[in-house]
Amino acid sequence: MVEKKKAFLYLHIAVFLFGFTAILGDLIKVNFISIVWWRGILTTLSLAIIINLKTFFKILSPKIILQQMLIGAFLAIHWLFFYGSIKVSNPTMALIALSSSSLITAILEPVIIKGYRWRRVDIILGILIIPGFLLIFYNSDTIQQKGLWLGLIGTVLGVIFSILNKKWLIVGQEFKLTFIQMFTVFVVISIIFILFSGTSGLFQFEMIKGYDWAYMSMFVLVCTVLSYYLYLKSMKHINAFDVSVAFNMEPIYGIIMAALLLQDYKNISVLVYTGMVYITILVFLDIYLKFKKH
Description:
- It is a single chain.
- By secondary structure, the chain is mostly helical.
- It has one domain (about 1-294).
- It contains 13 helices and no strands.
- The chain has helices at about 1-25, 30-50, 55-60, 60-90, 90-100, 100-110, 120-140, 140-165, 175-195, 210-235, 240-245, 250-260, 270-294.
- α1 runs antiparallel to α10 and α5 packs antiparallel against α12.
- The radius of gyration is 19 Å and the shape is globular.
- The two termini are about 20 Å apart.
- The mean pLDDT is about 85.
């Protein structure tokens, strides 16, 4: 029982830290594509110190490596849209979009993983969430609307990333798989820089300077490497259902921090927050129904 309580503590600390990445993404004064590049390369280098690269190819086959590279590609594009949403509007709009991830997962999971079936309640909740987003959309300004759309696209890509991670997970090799994914993020973003840097200022590489190094160090070491370590540590003692419930708290933690630390509420309509509360209620209703069945 003590180990399980510790596991829950580790898990919620990890989820809180994952939610904090939206705040750091707003604070770091480089463009969204540079944030993703720096996060990818610095996390890759950090994990290279932790894992044993000598036995890397002995354990993982070329097929597994290619699967993880595909997951890493989805992660890279997900981060581009997520941090693009933050830079275009604010963290709150990106996190409101992220709050729909559990319901989007319920719809997409049966498409990607054989054996999973749609539940009628998932379809109903998926339809019911639409008025919440319409309320948010029509009570936001043009910039916030753009941020919401980018966030929703990023959320769909993030859901696909999570489902594939679940489908191709190898227990005991999580850090090695994450290393491949992060290295792929670095490669994908580097290719985008090469192909599009001359076409738009949005794709220009930007160097981190001054205090941004402190924010980026926290981003990588605390909110990526440490949070992932705590997440993996917690998985030994709690089941997948409890993990999914905890991750529904990520956007809520993030929105509260955005209000307290960045004062996002000053630029956002009360009706937008009303729509957010409506979506949150649907998410927790989904949790309750699954808990009751579980």
